[in-house]
Records
---
Amino acid sequence: MRLSRYFLPVLKENPAEAQIVSHRYMLRAGMIKQQAAGIYSWLPLGYRVLKRIEQIVHEEQVRAGHIPLLMPTLQPADLWRESGRYDDYGQEMLRIKDRHERDMLYGPTNEEMITDIFRSHVGSYKDLPMTLYHIQWKFRDEVRPRFGVMRGREFLMKDGYNFDVDRESALHAYNRHMVSYLRTYERMGLTAIPMRAASGPIGGDNTHEFLVLASTGESEVFYDDRVTALKLGARDIDYDNWDQVAKVCEEFTTLYARTDETHDEAVFNGVPEEHRKVGRGIEVGQIFYFGTKYSEAMGATVVTKDGSKVPVEMGSHGIGVSRLLGAIIEASHDDKGIIWPEGVTPFHVGIVNLKQGDAEADAACEALYKSVAALGLEALYDDRDERAGGKFATMDLIGLPWRITVGPRGLKNGVVELTSRRTGESVELPPEQAIERIAQIYAGI
Ligand code: 5CA
């Protein structure tokens, strides 16, 4: 993409309404525009990152054997009357009437609708286990929408629902989600710690939240700090291997890590003092096992091997896709702007032309731009007729992890400069070598 032809409405001043750094940088980098409290347009740069995050979420869900579909944002109230949640859900639910005076709602979550789909088409243990998921907009009329996409009213969620014939199989589905989530967050450069939580309006007795530690987080967290060193890494997971998956979950949930909802001071005091930490965290996902809560109320049954009919065992599992942008920025920024992890960056590399209009510099930039594309990667080429300082400030603000700087002086010596946004370190290299380095960096991502 050439910046001269792009739409990147960068702001010079700090917007007064933004209280936390991720919100401030998302507005300043021209990623989002607020349209109403907690409701945002996704401008081109923000939309790119949102799509990259969605892509990672999809890939890891499919890897775990889960099946994508798409349910609507608007739902008939009658489904929610069946489960009893239409009245329970309260003012967070946006209720709408259509022209025929039928009660509708903008979905805050989809347990009822997916249960309806299941009961219409599935009736035998032979079709199980099955996990269906979608990535779809939700609406919750939060009392206090704030911090930009962090607590929106309209927000993008991945929500997945497992259907299993018995409790053991459903608990494996729970564990499988936990492991797939760990991998998902790691690919985004995040450490998200599974913490025992409370289930709220979704229900059930087994639930974990995934928290990214950040001083601006909305949840208070209590943890053994050795938990922050745990990494899934590149280990090979066989999602059909119940024992292997359960062992990984055990590894990640044995050390003390809880939110204030489930915190137990007596147990916490058992953690060696030097490892006992209290802090704040951003909830980027939550998984629930709730058994037959919805299937019983809505008549979603399956015939088991021995011929009996039982309500199907279920759980639901959510990732806050749009919230993740905020969480990643909270975890990865400096005083100049965002620092995107390679896994989610909107462009893989920025190209800065220090002397636009200089025949040699222009030609070198064009060649680099084409070489990046030939790698299957995307460059943002700042080809505007602007001063170098302004170009650098924009690149630093929008946070591309790698920048290639091209100027007549370097070109005389046959080199360009490759700079890491994270460390600030620069190396001078011939253009072909800079491209090679870029290829290597992204090879494993
Ligand atoms: N049905 C279940 C799981 S599919 C569910 O709705 N779970 S949830 O309520 O925990 O939401 C899942 C995730 O969505 C949360 O962990 C959080 O990351 C994100 N989320 C929830 N509310 C908001 C909000 N108002 N703004 C942005 N993200 C949100």
Note: The domain at 3-338 is CATH 3.30.930.10 (BirA Bifunctional Protein; domain 2).
---
Amino acid sequence: MTSTAEIIELSKKYLLNTYNRLPMAPVKGRGCWLWDAEGKKYLDFFSGIAVCNLGHSDPRVLRAIAVQARKLLHTSNVFYLDHQAELAQWLVEHSFADKVFFCNSGAEANEGAVKLARKYARKILGQDRYEVITMNRSFHGRTLGMISATGQEKVQKGFEPLLPGFRYADFGDLSSLEKILSPQTIAIMVEPVQGEGGVRLPSPDYFKGLRDLCHRHKLLLIYDEVQVGIGRTGKMFAYEHSGIAPDIMTLAKALGNGLPIGALLARDFVASAFLPGDHASTFGGNPFVTAVALEVVKAVSGEALPNVGEISPYLERLLRQLPGDYSIVQEVRGVGLLWGIDLACEARPFVERCLKKGLLINAVGPQTIRMAPSLLIRKKEIDFGIKILKEALNEEGSQKPL
Ligand code: PLP
């Protein structure tokens, strides 16, 4: 296959029409850069939706892939698996958790979290509690269970009946949460930063309030760190900013830097609710993905996190100047290397404008764009990206307002 046009034509002919794709076909990547089928170079400012935190073709990741591919890909969880155990050990030693279960995606990790919470209620507490409170504007995945958990009508519409057992509170608002608790509530599931909901952060004392509330009502606290875990916010896990750890946490996206892997982490008292036969995954934590993910977490904590610490204040300063300089920039929100910008224009055409100029960002709302560059990004790449962004803002600003 040679041209972008051919790739697009073939995709339209043979793939289900589930994605509103940008008219670009990346075929090669290195660091923060992608190349399309015609050889045009793009600065990647969203890393495959916050997945390639070490950028593309990272040498450590490539080496781990090559070494493990020659040794062993898959055997199943019928056996004990060396790298699965080592990765679990690394995650436990670097987090609040005592035990880990591996799966293949974020939605699956969240399914596991809800199943574990329900089992904990029935088996350990001996109570018929199954309800999980999630947040409006949240996003937890696309399985039937997780669209039911997601507090956005647009992802649920047309797929009813939804799975019972979820209620939605307003993100950042403890009183809205307390009002909808019921005797069946067992857990609160929340993203430390709402990514798909438009990069939204609650006030710093929110998580302390959540923890107190969970304590008072004997609820489990579940963090969905699928998007913000693995260094994205400047800490290995986003909960480290508040210092308020959960009882269960889910990871996926950046854990494999592009290989599909998800994880469910839990404290012992709740993890012990699962026994053989309660939960499983054929591919989950196979030797190949866990060997690579082990290198990923080591590289993120060893090299990427110090870079985020150094570079993110610089990016933040440049972004926070935008509302003062451009009337179409309404609000800038974010932390570490995850940023959302509300525009006074439609986000999608703006994203396409940036794409034409060689900058890849994406839309997370009708008027909100998101940036999530590689955690190894350098200052000159940030300068280049901001230059293109400003050109696009200038052009957009000279158009008629919405
Ligand atoms: N949870 C959060 C916070 C996410 O951002 C996403 C995906 O964007 C998911 C869950 C779903 O992950 P996956 O697409 O790997 O199932």
Note: The first strand starts at residue 26 and ends at 30.
